[in-house]
Amino acid sequence: RERVPFIFSLLLWDVRKLTTEPVDQYLASSAFSMTGMMTVKPYMETILGLLKSNHLDVLVSLIEDFLVNKEVMVCDKMGVRNSVAIKYCHLDDETGIQVSTKPATVNQFISACILLASICVKVERLDVVLEVSYRVLQMGKLNLSWTMLALHVFGSVCGDKLRFLKSCNLLMTTVRLVVLLLESTDTSSCLVSSYIQSNRPTAFPSCTQCVFDVDTVSIDVFISSLLDELDLCALSWNNHANSNEAITRHSSHSGSSGLEINCGESCNISKQAKFTEDTNYPAERDLCYFTEIISLLELFGNYMSCEWTYKNVVVRLLKILESCTCEEYSAALLVLVSQLGRFFIDDVGYETEAVVELRNKLAVLIGTSFTRSRSIPVQFSAIGALLSLFPLTFDKIVSSQTGPLSGPCVLQASQISEWFGQLSKENQSFARSFFS
Ligand SMILES: *[C@@H]1O[C@H](CO)[C@@H](O)[C@H](O)[C@H]1NC(C)=O
Ligand SMILES: *[C@@H]1O[C@H](CO)[C@@H](O)[C@H](O)[C@H]1NC(C)=O
Ligand SMILES: *[C@@H]1O[C@H](CO)[C@@H](O)[C@H](O)[C@H]1NC(C)=O
C-alpha cells in the first residue's frame, strides 16, 4: 500500500516523457493527438500487475486528488530550490532534501488524465472514470478550461466504451449534458449561471464528434425525468409505509426521458456517505439510488442559472417534500435544496427574486406542523436549508444578546430562534455545534 504513491509518480513520469511537446492550454485537440501515442506500454502493464486489485482504489484516489488539487510535490536538494510559487515547504534536516508543492503544469495534468483513463480501460472499470469525471466537474468550476480538458481526455481515451456503460446511464448522461452545456455557444438561452456566463473560456474547443456529443435527450427533459424518479421513490415509499408491503419497484425500467434506468445498480458517486448500517432497513437500497439522483441534480445546480433551477427543480423538490413521509428522503431533499440555495447565493446574492421566494417557502414549510412532526435530522436539514439563504449566522440569530433583529429577513429569523427555543438544552447545544 505504501508503494502506491511511488508507483503513481513513476507512471506519471513515464507518461510525461511521451508528452513533452508543449501543449496549448485551451486546445484540447493537442490532447487528442497525444492520446494517440498512449498505447498501454508493456512496462505499464508490469507495474499495474504489481498493484493488487484493492490497491487500485488507492491509486485512483491519488490521481483524483491530483486532478482536483492540481499540485505536484517536488524534492530539491538544498540550495537548488525552485522559486515558482511554492506554497508549502518542508525541509528534512538529515538528507538536506526539501519537499514543496507547486502548481501542476498542463502537461502533468493531461498525463494524469491519460493515466487514469488508460488504467480504467485496462481493468474495465469505466464506472470509475465517470465517478472521477463527476468529482472533477463538481470541484472544477473555478478552473473551467482544465476541467473541460480533463473530460475530453477521458472521453478520447475511453471512447465509445464510456457511452455504452449501461449501469451508469444516468451519470454518463449527466456528465455529457453538463459538458455540452458548458460548451454551448448559444448565449440566448439563460441556462447557465452568471458565473459561467462571465467566466466561460472563450476558446473552448467545441465538441464535435466527441463521445459527449450524442443527441439523445435534452437537458430539461432529462432533469425533469430525474425529478420524476425522486417522486416515484417517495411515492413507493409512502405506499410501502401504508401497506407494509415490500417496495416492488422494477429493478429496471424506462424513465420518462426514455433512458433505461437500473435502480439497484448505481454508480456509487455517494459511496462515501454512510447511511444506516441496518441492512434490513427496507429503504436502504432505494436510499442509495435516491441520493445518487440527488447528487446528479446537485451537479447541474453547480452550473445552471438560479432562475432556471429554482423554477424547474426547486419548486418540484418542495412539492415532493410536502408529500414525502420517509424521513431519510426528506432529509436528503432538504440537503439538496440547501446546497442549491448556496449556489444561488454565490451566483446572484441574497435579494434575487427566486432567493426571496425560496426563503419564504421554506419558512412556511418550517412554520407548519412539518417540523414538529419530523425527526430531529429532518428538522435540522430544514433549518439548514433556510439558513443557507440567510446573510446572518445561526449564532447571531439565536443569540439573546443581539437584541431584536432588523432587516428584510427578520420574520424568518425569529422563526428560527423560536424553533431553537423549544429544543431541549442538549439538542440546543447540538444545534449550535451543527450550524456553526
Ligand atoms: C488552473 O490550475 C492550474 C494549476 O493550478 C493553473 O496553473 C492555471 O492557471 C489555472 N487556470 C485558471 C484559469 O485558473
Ligand atoms: C458500487 O459499490 C458496491 C459496493 O461497494 C459494488 O458491489 C458495486 O459493484 C459498485 N457498483 C459499481 C457500478 O461500481
Ligand atoms: C433531542 O431530539 C430527539 C429527537 O426528537 C429526541 O429523541 C431527544 O429526546 C431530544 N433530546 C433531549 C435531551 O430532549
Can you walk me through this structure?
Keywords: Signal. It is a single chain. By secondary structure, this protein is mostly helical. The chain folds into 2 domains: 158 residues, no CATH class; 171 residues, no CATH class. It is 61% helix and 6% strand. The chain has a 3-stranded antiparallel β-sheet with strand order 1-3-2. The chain has a two-stranded antiparallel sheet with strand order 4-5. It is globular, with a radius of gyration of 24 Å. It binds 2-acetamido-2-deoxy-beta-D-glucopyranose (3 copies). The site of one 2-acetamido-2-deoxy-beta-D-glucopyranose (NAG) has 6 residues, from loops.
* Order of helix and strand elements from N to C terminus: HHHHEEEHHHHHHHEEHHHHHHHHH
Q: Compute the gyration radius: what is it? A: 24 Å
In helices, the fraction of residues equals 55-70%
Structural class assignment: mainly alpha
DSSP summary, beta strand count: 5
Largest sheet: 3 strands, antiparallel
Number of domains: 2
- Outline, from the CA principal axes? globular
Mean pLDDT: 78
Q: Strands of the biggest beta sheet: in what spatial order?
A: 1-3-2
Distance between the termini: 37 Å
Question: How many H/I helices?
Answer: 20
